């Protein structure tokens, strides 16, 4: 039977790497000379923030047109650098001195670059995880010891650990992305053996991703994460510290609300949900599904398009439900269980890095009441119930 056109046959068209999945391959580290002031500020965020100098330095930036930025990788580096500077600018004073206005000198170029990339004018996962890395020895392996982030936040090596461990988990799971076109071809051609092969690769890459996740305990300190880093990931939607949002001076007359960085902006996990036919409730009544759907607007548009292509492709779940092949059902369940185990492990990590430090700090005599939205995700969601509901709907997908 002639191979029917498989919409996913060329991952390149979705800016997806055969080897690294949604990770930006070989991110640029430098921009053309005129933009050096942006790179210099972004490279010195930790010390500028610790010295409370960042806001003053931002105001001294030269007015720059974005016309000298050429190509996707320069735009991604510029969005990453300006995204880091924006988070540092807004949260430099912690929750005691929050600024409501982003100065035009940075707001105007940041919004123009965001528009060209189809990203929101706030730091997103595709910035500080997917594009924020380099190898120390370019000919060496992609291992933690041979890698470095391009930009960091205050809190010592906490942001490096958090961003690079997430990147390595993405890389482990990426080996499953490249078999998705083969899985769709197998369904179109009713080839059970090729389908089984593809699903075995999916479950083994998810198992490898969970193993990689363990690195978080070695490279991220819970107190540094909870007390310092998470502040800089916070957004201005559903945040009582910026109830109207942030005013982007010179761009919009009214303040705008954008959600803080979230791994719900990671395409890789949402891609497995789409492939396995796991619905996290309907976007009409279920807030978890709404949040996951909304976070797709914080992904590079080509990655969002890939998720939609996977979700609208031939249904793996329906094909297997209608199949008599018990082996096929078993392999499908192994994929679902691997995703459940990954989400369960993630919940344990969230307890260690958020729930426990939060209660420890709450118990400190001199600590003010925890703000009502501190227990919420950077996206303003009630994080534990969100994560548990996503894990539970994944579990329900078992055959
Ligand atoms: C210190 C380590 C971590 C903490 C404290 C943490 C915390 C959280 C929190 C609070 C959320 C809820 C939504 C949000 O606010 O973003 C979340 C979502 C998520 N996190 Fe993490 N996370 C950590 C590490 C990781 C790593 C290494 C990965 C792997 C890529 C990951 C993948 C996800 C995903 C995919 C979601 C969206 C919900 C889902 O699809 O299950 N997280 N995380
Ligand atoms: N209190 C408290 C509280 C603390 C943290 C959060 N949320 C949070 O850190 N989300 C980001 C996240 C979750 N998982 C992963 S892997 C890689 C990233 C990332 C990133 C960059 C920011 C784009 N993430 C919510 C509430």
UniProtKB/TrEMBL annotation:
Its EC number is 1.13.11.52. GO terms for biological process: immune system process; L-tryptophan catabolic process to kynurenine. SUPFAM superfamilies: Indolic compounds 2,3-dioxygenase-like. Pfam families: IDO (PF01231). The keyword NADP does not apply. It comes from the Eukaryota. Its main location: cytoplasm. It catalyses: L-tryptophan + O2 = N-formyl-L-kynurenine; D-tryptophan + O2 = N-formyl-D-kynurenine. Belongs to the indoleamine 2,3-dioxygenase family. Monomer. This is Indoleamine 2,3-dioxygenase 1. The gene is IDO.
């Amino acid at each position: 039977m002639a191979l029917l056109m498989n919409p996913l046959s060329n991952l390149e068209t979705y800016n997806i790497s055969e080897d690294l999945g949604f990770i930006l391959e070989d991110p640029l580290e430098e921009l053309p000379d005129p933009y050096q002031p942006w790179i210099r500020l972004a490279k010195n965020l930790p010390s500028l923030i610790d010295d409370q100098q960042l806001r003053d330095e931002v105001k001294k930036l030269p007015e720059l047109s974005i016309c000298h930025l050429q190509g996707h990788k320069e735009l991604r580096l510029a969005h990453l650098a300006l995204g880091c500077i924006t988070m540092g600018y807004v949260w430099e004073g912690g929750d005691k001195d929050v600024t409501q206005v982003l100065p035009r000198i940075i707001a105007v170029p940041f919004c123009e670059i965001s528009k060209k990339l189809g990203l929101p004018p706030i730091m997103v996962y595709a910035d500080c995880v997917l594009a924020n890395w380099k190898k120390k020895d370019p000919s060496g392996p992609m291992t933690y010891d041979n890698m470095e982030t391009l930009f960091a936040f205050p809190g010592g090596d906490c942001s490096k650990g958090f961003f690079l461990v997430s990147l390595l988990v993405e890389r482990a799971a990426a080996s499953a992305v490249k078999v998705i076109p083969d899985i769709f071809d197998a369904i179109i051609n009713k080839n059970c053996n090729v389908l089984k092969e593809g699903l075995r690769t999916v479950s083994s890459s998810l198992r490898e991703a969970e193993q990689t996740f363990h690195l978080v305990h070695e490279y991220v300190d819970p107190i540094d994460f909870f007390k310092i880093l998470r502040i800089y990931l916070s957004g201005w939607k559903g945040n009582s510290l910026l109830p109207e949002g942030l005013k982007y001076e010179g761009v919009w007359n009214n303040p705008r609300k954008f959600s803080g960085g979230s791994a719900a902006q990671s395409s890789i996990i949402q891609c497995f949900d789409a492939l396995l036919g796991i619905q996290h409730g309907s976007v009409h009544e279920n807030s978890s599904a709404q949040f996951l759907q909304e976070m797709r607007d914080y992904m590079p548009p080509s990655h969002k398009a890939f998720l939609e292509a996977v979700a609208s492709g031939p249904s793996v779940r329906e094909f297997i439900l209608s199949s008599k092949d018990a082996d096929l059902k078993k392999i499908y369940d192994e994929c679902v269980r691997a995703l459940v185990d990954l989400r369960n492990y993630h919940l344990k990590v969230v307890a260690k890095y958020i729930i426990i430090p939060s209660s420890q700090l709450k118990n400190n005599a001199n600590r003010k009441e925890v703000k009502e939205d501190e227990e919420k995700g950077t996206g303003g969601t009630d994080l534990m119930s969100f994560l548990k509901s996503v894990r539970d709907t994944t579990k329900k997908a078992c055959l």
